[in-house]
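Per reviewer request, we include the raw input and output of the structure prediction for the construct analysed in the revised manuscript.
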Amino acid sequence: MDARKPLDATAIGLMLMLCLIWSMQQIALKATAADFSPVLQIALRSGIGALLVALLMLWRREWLTVAQGMWKPGCLAGSFFALEFLLVGEAVRHTSAGHVVVFVYTAPVFAALGLHWKLPNERLAPLQWIGVGLAFAGIAVAFLRGADAQAKLSGVLWGDFLALLAGVVWGATTVLIRASRLSALPATQTLLYQLLMGFALLMPVAAVIGHTTFHATPLVWLSLGFQSLVVSFASFLIWFALLRHYLASRLGVLSFLTPLLAVALGAWLLAEPIEPGFMTGAALALSGIVLVSGYGWIEAAMKR
């Protein structure tokens, strides 16, 4: 029997806070991109976050599991994590923060397709397949809205494509964790593998591609502190704690407030345009994702 409980006021309040935090991370990257290369910033935040998680594990007397080849899927998940955020770091240089978040949050569709193929108990129901179709239709509409010459010249479509690829990689990471022995590890260990590999891989990549700009302005330090302490450390630990106590499908549906907040905050804080065509595509895609991820919730509601 599933001991996890439905959402209460505490869970809803924490999820709203997490959605606000996650919507702000791409905005912070975009706002500081001229003074702090996004890939370098992500690498440094991963290193600081890994150090904080390691200290927490040390305080708890918890050791990183490497025996019996556990390090192999751990390092692979970390490599996927690094690739995902390399794509995000590049995407924010070409397109708006709102676009990046919307396309990255298509990840649950790709995860659902991968899990349908890998795990027999994760087969998609007919309503979820309708959601998959809606999501892909929305992605197509969101791309087509930017198919004009100006968007092509400004690189917006390229940035959107990189963000979508980041969503695919995030989905692949979810499949890897769920379908491997990593699913039995405590959340802190899985997170540590990802943060360590993110730091170890992204630092040399940033140096090789020449994305090493760092001008120590107050906004840059504020962004690095926010990304390291709040995003990479605190928000993920709160998320994993919520997953241990509440139904994942219902938490997942609430998490899709993140793209909506990102678009609104990007327009307010960065003066990013809100294109009707893109918003139509985003609405279709998010509706489809809710059908895929929130199927359990929807099924329970229909039964009631």
